[in-house]
Amino acid sequence: MLSIKNLSKSFSSAGEPVSVLRGVDLDLRAGERVALTGESGSGKSTLLHLIAGLDAADSGSIRLEETEVTALSDAGRASLRRNRIGLVFQQFNLIPSLSVEDNLAFQARIAGRHDAAWSKELIERLGLGSLLRRYPEQLSGGQQQRVAIGRALATKPSLLLADEPTGNLDEATADDVLALTRDLVARTGCGFLMVTHSLHLAAKLDRHVTLHAGRIT
Amino acid sequence: MRRALWVLAVLLSHWRRHKMQFATLLIGLIAATALWSGVQAINQQARNAYDRAAATFGGVRTAMLVAPNAATFSQDLFVKLRRAGWPVSPVLEGRVQLNGHSMRLLGIEPVTLPADVGNAPRLGAADLTRFVAPPGQTLVAQETLIDLQEAEGTAPPISSGAKLPPLHVLPQLVPDVLVVDIGVAQRLLNKPGQVSRLLIGKPNGRPAPLQSVVGDQLQRVEPTAETELERLTDSFHLNLTAFGLLSFFVGLFIVNSAVGLAFEQRLPMLRTLRACGASARMVNTVLVVELVVLALIAGLIGLVCGYFIAAALLPDVAASLRGLYGAQIPGQLTLHAEWWFAGIGISVAGAVVAAATSLIKAIRMPVLATAQPRAWQQAQHRWLILQSAAACAVFAVALFLLRYGESLIAGFGVLAALMLGAALILPAFLEIILLAGQRRARGPVALWFWADSRQQLSGLSLALMALLLALAVNVGVSTMVETFSRTFIGWLNGRLAADVYISASDNAQAIAIRNWLKDRGEVQAILSGGRAETQVQGQPVELFGLPDHALYRELWPLLEAAPRPWTRLVPGNAAFISEQLSRRLNVGVGDVVEVPAPGGPWELDIVGIYADYGNPKGQLAVNVAALIRQFPQTPQTRIGLIVPREKIPGLIAALQKQFSLDERSVADQATVKAESIRIFNRTFAVTSALNAFTLGVAGIALLTSLLTLANSRLPQLAPLWAIGITRPRLAAIELTKTLSVSLFTALLALPLGLVVAWCLIAIVNVKAFGWRLPFHVFPLQLIELVAVALLAALLAALLPVARLARMQPTDLVKVFANER
């Protein structure tokens, strides 16, 4: 479902090129849940951004189902994110001026794929029924992250990408959030790639890969 | 489309959560549009009035034939010219008194009136019959009918007792003009067979040369695109436009500040939108659409406000234009569609300009860019240097215009460049002052006070620039008006030499009055005056006859004079020249001016220059007896009397009873002076109103900046609260900071305002009116303005400071909880 071949990316730091990814290869099957770990600065988030089309690779290939992501235009990448990818960030990145209900439905509405029944099920499964009228600032960190997961899955994407989704949460809440995510991923059948520092959480997914010196080990 | 609407809904949701920011943005746009549009409405109204005046049956926009001495001439010349194939039409012009109003009476000959005379309203066939056939019609504007308190169809008498034909409204006419058939005009003005000018229509074929038909008796005057009134009032309208523009820019400062903060606060939202699949093009397009929609809404509200501002100011503006230039502006506002479109256009353009930097930033923002709210503060030092360099360049432009500029526009250019330069350099000045304070500070709180003031400066600098400009304009204009006021009153005391002034309806009445006065023991002297119109070097000039009396020698103020000027005036070959005419003709004491007179050129030695404030016409003062010798047609209807003060009321009452004179025809010196001062004060009422408006808008700019900054300042304030400084104390420190920077700004505005006043007095006034005032400084007025500025700053700071003082600890704790 996701196939990454020989992916490279470098940045410029103080005028010097710094190579972050040096020929990354990674495959992910539909419905598979994979944890990606690595040291700080090893390029985990960069890899996620490249898969989501938020940034452009220097070389290599990212193929999501039949689509070559690296060949897409800005509009094509936007469409990909809108329709086939769900993104969850450590900082939640909810829209502060929208209520929980509107935040949940936001991406589905943008994609024109709002499914009321699925939306209702998501709200129930995420336990957000009593919080729909609230605004992000009125929620705890765990609640905010549940909204972010709901928003990412509202379009029933092919792939869910999560960048340290539990980084701002305590251990118990992190466990709850991950359990919920695993259930929902299983329910939708999408692929799930999660960046995390926690080996404890990484162990709870189907597979665990590590990014080291710019390569997957 | 639906996707775009969702993105728009998300962007708009920001304003729902930030209502004050939204209000700030709208207030800025409304303020910018309102005063600008208001001023444009007034200017448009005035220009329409000038057009109507110019088009009144052949104004200056029509070619015409006139007598070289500008006097009336026989209508036989009209007949001769028509026979020779000239498409001319006669007009007789004069003034009549009607219901206590002095009105311009125009006699026209509608049959020969050329169809292409300016944009004169044409009389239809049915109207033509009614206009010409007895009893005829008197055409008037609707405003005139209201002023005269007469109904359409009535036939009121003029002061001589003769009745006008029935009044009939012709909407295109300018106020204070009566239009009748030329035969009626000749009878009413007692000028049988006389004509003032002949309007020239489009000739069919080639008529005989003018010289061969009428010799030197008539000369051709070519039409001009701009009327004398338009030329004279240019400076006034430019002045209004400058105020409108200043307010427009201050409004845009507010918009820039509000939009800048809103965009920075929405950067994470934009990033999320992009991450959720909204393309960059769509987000950017929707951002622009959102801005344009807001600008359209605010523009419409601003236009409505502008309409009310214009309607409120129009009576004062009309009074100013009447007082300064004799221009008649209708008091009721009428607006054209282009005004509405222009207003909306300026609102949208202003919003786009004010938001340009933020929009470009958002458009160029990479999707992964980390939101760095107020990152531009870090680049403050570099900006200060760049801004100061720009200020120096603008000052150089001001110096260049001052040295080489000749026109009125150049004068205003000096003013604009000075103010722009001062606004640009203000943050650097304040930075230096605050840095000096920081270096001298003792104690941690004082140190923080100065350091934080410096950090806050970049967020407040636009509002402070607006305050600086508004204050400088206030200081400059107030100083100019106060100087003018004092000079004018002093000058008036000298000019009004006689104790009683009489204006007879005609020469016969004037002779009767003089004869009657000779038997009145209380009358110590009868001073006859007279005025004639002529042209010198193409300039309209008024010849003013001065009686030879010791009182004038004592009181009449001369700016510059040759030895024994009054003695040299008596024989009739010398004149005093008004300051504005001496500048226009470049003539000084010792020069000779040749005046065309009915009997041939009249050479006059210039022996003195006098101030003649507020008179749009150039004037030459000559001995009255010599004036009547040279211009025998001069009406001798003006009489001044020297009378002991206690006898004045009795004499005036007797005059009114004996000769049926109304209050306008006979008045004592105190009444004339009071009326002049009233007109003067009314003239500058509009300036005071505009001063107050611009200061108010600057106050709003400060308030909105402080409000928008208030939220982003929590991370700076929360640590101080955490280490034990109470919220009320923090609020007091914030208030002191705002007042300090406002005080520094106000103190810097004082010298700038005085430079503005000097520019207005020494450059703009001279170029616009032709006279220069002495420069005075009024310290009490300056202190008052500083106090007003501090009050405005205090009011602006109160709301955010009160919020801070009442802020709940939970809100401050959030800063540390990383949940904001």
Q: Secondary-structure blueprint of this entry?
A:
The complex is a heterodimer of chains A (217) and B (820).
Chain A: E1 2-13, E2 16-28, E3 33-38, H1 44-51, E4 59-64, E5 67-68, H2 74-84, E6 85-88, H3 100-111, H4 116-126, H5 141-153, E7 159-163, H6 171-188, E8 191-195, H7 199-202, E9 207-212, E10 215-216
Parallel strand pairs in A: 3-8, 3-9, 6-7, 7-8
Antiparallel strand pairs in A: 1-2, 1-4, 4-5, 9-10
Chain B: H1 2-17, H2 19-54, E1 64-66, E2 73-74, H3 76-83, E3 88-98, E4 101-108, H4 125-132, E5 138-140, H5 142-148, E6 167-169, E7 177-181, H6 182-188, E8 194-195, E9 197-200, H7 210-214, E10 219-221, H8 228-275, H9 280-325, H10 337-364, H11 380-404, H12 408-440, H13 444-495, E11 500-503, H14 507-518, E12 525-528, E13 530-536, E14 539-546, H15 550-555, E15 560-561, H16 565-569, E16 574-578, H17 579-585, E17 592-597, E18 600-610, E19 618-623, H18 624-630, E20 638-642, H19 648-659, E21 666-668, H20 669-683, H21 685-712, H22 714-722, H23 727-768, H24 779-806, H25 809-817
Parallel strand pairs in B: 4-7, 5-6, 14-19, 16-18
Antiparallel strand pairs in B: 1-9, 1-10, 2-8, 3-4, 3-9, 11-20, 11-21, 12-20, 13-14, 15-18, 16-19, 17-18
Brief write-up:
The complex is a heterodimer of chains A (217) and B (820). Chain A is of the alpha/beta class and 217 residues long. Chain A contains seven helices and ten strands.
